[in-house]
Amino acid sequence: MLVQARPRADGTSTVRVGFTCSKKIGNAVTRNRAKRRLRAAAREVLSVHARPGLDYVLIGKPGATVTRPFDALTGDLRQALDRLHGRLNGRR
After folding, report:
1. How confident is the model at residue 8, as a pLDDT?
2. pTM metric for this prediction
3. Residue 55 half-sphere exposure toward CB, CA atoms < 13 A
4. End-to-end alpha carbon distance in the chain
5. Please, are residues 83 and 63 in contact by the beta-carbon 8 Å criterion?
6. Which of 57, 74, 77, 92 has the smallest number of Cβ neighbours within 10 A?
7. Residue 91 pLDDT > 90, yes or no?
8. C-alpha angle 49/15/8, rounded to 5°?
9. Which domains are assigned to the chain?
């Protein structure tokens, strides 16, 4: 998966999350399965690791989003958030 984040300029501390899966992932059933898995991973990980005032977008990738074990998917999301938050704080 690919994770993007963007700070909001409106000053609110809510966390918003969007999900997208293109037709490259597969048919409608496969895309919906990928989005359900992304939603479940986000529910588990973002409740603890999300930063207030950011908008997140989780983008499903062909193959991996549907077939990757769920524990690995949540671990990937945690790792992506750590890297993303580090970049937002000025670290690389």
Report:
1. 86
2. 0.89
3. 9
4. 20
5. no
6. 92
7. no
8. 115
9. 2-87 (3.30.230.10)
Segment 14-58, tens digit of pLDDT? 899 999 999 999 999 999 999 999 999 999 999 999 999 999 999
Q: What DSSP letter does each residue of the chain carry, written as one string? A: -EEEEEE-SS-----EEEEE--TTS-SHHHHHHHHHHHHHHHHHHHHHHPPTTEEEEEE--TTHHHHS-HHHHHHHHHHHHHHHHHHHTT--
63 dihedral zone (left: phi>0; alpha: psi -120 to 50; beta):
left
User: What CA–CA distance (Å, rounded) separates 38 from 35?
Assistant: 5
C-alpha 82/C-alpha 85 separation (Å) is: 5
